[in-house]
Amino acid sequence: MPLTSPDPSSDLPPEVQVQIWFARLEAKLDIALSQHADHETRLREIERRPVVTPRAMWVGLAAVGGLVAAAQPFLDRLYAN
Question: 62-69: which pairs have CB atoms within 8 A and are 24 or more residues apart?
Answer without folding.
Answer: none
